[in-house]
Amino acid sequence: MNYAIYVVISWVGSAFLCAYIASEKNRSGASWFFAGLVFGIFAIIAIVAVPALSEEEKEQRQQDAKGEEDPDLEEWKQKMKEKL
Q1: How far apart (Å, rounded) are the C-alpha atoms in residues 81 and 3?
Q2: Separation CA 1–CA 7 (nearest Å)
Q3: In the chain, where are the structural domains located?
């Protein structure tokens, strides 16, 4: 019984550790929290290996998630339509 408690505590602890490391690297803390819950120590290894995002990359990913179009992409689409 004691062993099961330690396993659960370490699994939840790894989830919080993943979330903390992810937020320090400008990544989604919530997503990495759940990854830590599911994969445990393997998620910690993964988030340590993943490079940090710059603020610009983070903002771009947030725009992509919201469905906002990149102005440069819109300009490129217009040029392609004109060529056709």
Answers
A1: 64
A2: 10
A3: 1-53, 55-84
